Every structure is written in structure tokens, then in C-alpha cells.
Amino acid sequence: MAETLSVQTLNRATLARQLLLARERIPVADAVARLCAMQAQEPKPPFLGLWTRVDGFQASDLHTAMHDRSLVRATMMRATLHLVTASDYIAFRTTMQPMLDTAMRVLGDRAAGLDLEQVVPAARAFLQEGPRTFNEVRAHLQEGFPDVNERALGYAVRMCVPLVMVPTEDRWGFPRTSRFALADTWLDAPLAPPALDSLMLRYLAAFGPASAADAQTWSGLPALGEVFDRLRPGLRVFADDKGRELFDLPDAPRPAEDVPAPARFLPEFDSLVLAHADRRRIIADAHRPSLTTKNLRVRAVFLWDGFAHGTWELEYKRRIATLRLRPFEPLPSSALAALTTEGEALLRFAEPAAKEARVEVAEPV
């Protein structure tokens, strides 16, 4: 019979792999590789997510890694933008393509007349001339395919042409309207063939122990049960408190459930809160609806004793930086003290020009 792992044990195992039990002094690209990519739907969150995980992290570290092309921002898991190492992008972008093809269904009737066998080569030829904004890509394709919905043309390129975003000297690495480059040109390397088994092993290293359903939620790829069955001989198999089967790498860290977990702040869209179908290892089911806004933004959360106990937001006005905590429930004084200390450090990183930094606690939501 498989060993049963408690929610608390799963929490500590995942935090250990996500560099959240203790900051580590490692190169930024190594950190992103350990995390198996970071959701980067907006450019700022990866800076905050790395600050909370990497000892001594400076914004310039990430700028350097993006400009030397060891890290790229590109469409990957769940058809969303991620910060990923160049080597992982090359290794796994082709593995994502079936999911990205399926994502095209969202176009519905807007896809009328869209012929990918014509549009994709036309887009590649245009981008081969140099990086382009999507406004430029859509306008160019509309000239060649005037009867096809302009937005459908742009979405097809995002899903079906491997692209990376071109970094700039903007504070958070990218302007509001970014340019995109062909991935194989930018990285000077062809993309590798599909490697689904290897991707799932990397997922377990970053987020395990986990179920096939968890991996599907993280990746957006369907029907992964057969993949884990194929990998089963080389994996440890556990069960959660509801009897569901969990898989893990044999030598992956699984700390004791009573290992201390420090106060930490996760940015918006952090992969940790999106990486499992059963998210109780990070946030209680009762609080999960609070994670997402009506327009589908994933809120920033703070961790106390390893679990999400509320959301937070940062405001900067008249050189006053305010970090406002919105706990799900009243917090003990020890939690507030630790979160205040960590929050003040976050403010010094995020708004170094502030003449005053404040941590405030709103009424529980």
C-alpha cells in the first residue's frame, strides 16, 4: 500500500522545491530552471518572484539573463507567457504544440477562412526580417489575408509560431508594446522534438509529489495518466489524504511536515498557486475563489507557515510605498510581525526610491 502524505507534508515538499523554505544564493537562470519556468503574463511578477526566492537577488540579474538570452519570455504552459531558460524552451516548446493547437478553438467563428498552412509561413517570413510588434504582424497579415479576422490572425501566430519577446532596458524588462522574434533565430538553435516524459519529470522536480491531474492543470496538456504509467517504474508512488495517487522522483526533497516555513510574498500569477488541480497544499479550498479577480487576474498572495493566508497589493504614491495585506482570516501577532518585516524588505526592493515604506493590514476579506 502506498504511503499517505498529508497536506502539510505536500506543502513542505513543494515549498522546498520552489525555493520558499529558504532563499538560496544561486544564479538567476538556475533558479528559473529549478522552478521549471515562472508564469510571466506581465513583466513585473517574475522580478518579485525571484526576489522572494533567491538570496541577494537584484533586478539587474534578471535583466542580464534576459539580454544575454539565457532566459526568455515566451508562450508555454497553458498557452500563457512564461519566463523560461533558453535550454528548456528549446527542449520543450514543441511538446507544448498540441495544447497550443487546441487553444485555437477559443477563436470560434472568428477563425473563418483561417488557413494555418498559409498564415504560419507568411508570418515566419515577415518575422525573419526582424523582430516585430503584434500590431505590425497583424497589419501585415491582414494585407495578405483581408477576409480573415485580424485578431484571429494574431492569435494564430502566437499559438503556432514559436516566438520570444525581445527585452529592453525598461524597468521590468519589457515595454507595454513589445517586439517578438522567431525563437530559433533569437536562440540560434532549432527546437527539439517532443519530450513529454522529460517534461513531466521536470514538473515533478519543481512541484511534486503530484498527480496526473495536477500535471495536466499546470501544463494544459491532456491525458497525462498514460505518461505517468509509463514513468511509474522509475518513480515513487504515494497517496494523498483522499486516496489519490501521487508520483514523485525518488530522491526529491520531502521535508518533515513540521519544518519551519518563513513568511513569504508571492507576486501576481505566481506558478505555485496554479500548478496543481488540488491546491490545498498551498491554499484552502474555502479561500481559493479569492485568488482570481472577475477579469481573471491571479492575485498576489502572502504565505504564513507555508500556506496562503491572504492577498496583498502594492501602492506607490508621492514617494510613499504601501504594502497592504488583506488576510482571509484574523492573523496572530507573530504572523503580523514576520509579515511586516518581510514586507518592508519587499518594499525596499520594489520601490527603492520611496522616502517612506508602510505595511498595512486591512480587515479580513
UniProtKB/TrEMBL annotation:
Molecular function terms from GO: DNA binding
Top-rank lineage group of the source organism: Bacteria
One Pfam family from the record: AlkZ-like
Keywords from the UniProt entry: DNA-binding
InterPro entries: AlkZ-like
Protein name from the UniProt record: Winged helix DNA-binding domain-containing protein
